[in-house]
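Q: Got a minute? One more chain.
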Amino acid sequence: MLPRLQVDAVVACFLLKYFGEERFPGISDAQYLFFVDIPRGKSVVELEREGHILLDMGGGKFDHHVTRESGKEKCLSQMVAEYLGVEKNRALRKLLEYARRDDLEGKGTLSKDPIDRAFGLSGLVNDLNRMLPDDQEAVLLTVMPLLMAQYGEEKKRAEDLPAEYEQKVREGKARIGSMQSVRGSIRVALVETDEIGMAGYLRGQQGVDMVVQKMSSGHVNIITHQKKEFDLSEIVKQLRKAEIRAKGTGCAVSEREFANPGRIIGVEEWYFDTKAKTIQNGGIRPQGTIPTKLSPEAIIAIIKEAVVIKL
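A: Always. Here it is, folded:
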């Protein structure tokens, strides 16, 4: 009978595969072997000499049962992270904490909602174990890309986006200012980038309430902090009217219709999403949408004049 993989073991394999090349040359292409006990006639020392890395067995350097006996129990992924020197990597913080909590406390997914628990990582790994009881490698290879994707997004938030933002500031392509509204001061950012995660970074890490993001294609999107409950109707009305003036065309709609959700005929450049609290000139994939003729400075001026927060 093969062992049943748990989240902690999968995370440990992920760490070794993607961060262990310096300590274990060739490990990124290594094969996986699954067994419950040390093969008969072999010792831990012999197996390691043959190039095997034992996880959670044999009393070796990656056997967390040894730490349990010492009174300072660690999970397997924590031991691997410390050995590889990545335990303080901010992009791995959530992943390592999830694995620790799941293994040592049995609380991988804290929510009591049955849907959350069913689709949480721990629940899905258990489902794969049941579906593939004789193919643990398939379970591992199914989950591994999910961990890589999560790590990639965390690395982007923790390292890549802050670095890009600072570079944009130095280049004069990003700035944050304040505007006054009926609820007091709000922080508005103007940034030139194609990185779709930048707005989320500015809202979450820089305390920005509204982001005006210009893409290299010339498209401009306005993204707000949804919890602030912005009323964007006056902004979109003035944007559409300014767009018509910039194009030198007419628009057969009433004054009231300029604030309608979605698109309006004659000024299709601007899409008003009342649920997401955004005003999009093409969104993150602007194919088929004409770039606005308004400059970012003109858009900021319109926002400054029209911004209202819902009471």
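A: The mean pLDDT is 90.
Q: Perfect, thanks.
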